[in-house]
Amino acid sequence: MSNKARDIFIVGLRNAHAMEIQARELMERQSERLDEYPDVKAKVSSHLKETNDQVKRLEKCLEACGESTSSLKDTAQSAAANMQAMAHSMAGDEILKNTFANDAFEHFEIAAYKSLLALCGPAGMDSARASLEQSLKEEERMAAWVESNVEKVTMDYLQHEQRQAA
What we know:
mainly alpha; elongated
C-alpha cells in the first residue's frame, strides 16, 4: 500500500462526500419546484434517497480509513448548490437549465467514483470497492435517465409555455 495512494484516496473520498452534499442540496431545491413535471420530480426524489445512502457509504469508507469528512468542503459545496439553484430558479426556463446541469453533474459524479475505484487497490482499500461500485451504478442509472429524458422535458416545457401564453 502506497501512502501517497492512500492520501489521494482519502482526499477523493472527502471530495466525493462534499460532491454528494452538493447533489443533495441541488435535488432538495429542485424538487421543491417540480410540481409541473411529475416524472422529473419522482426521479429526483428517488435519486435523492440514493444520494443520502451514498453520503452514508462515503462516511463509512472514511471511517474505515480512520478519517472523517471535511466540514469546510461540505459547507462550501452546500453553499454552491444553493447559489446554483437560486440562479436557475430566476430563469424562465429553469427546468431546462436544471436538466442540462443535472446531466453534467451526473457525469462528474461518475468520473469521481471511477477515480476512487481505480485507487482502491493501490490505497489498500479494496474493502471500499463494493460501496463505491454501488454508488457508481446509481449515478450511471441517473445519468442514463436524464440523457434519455432531455427531449421529453424540453417538449413538456414547450407545452407548459404554450399553455401559459394561451
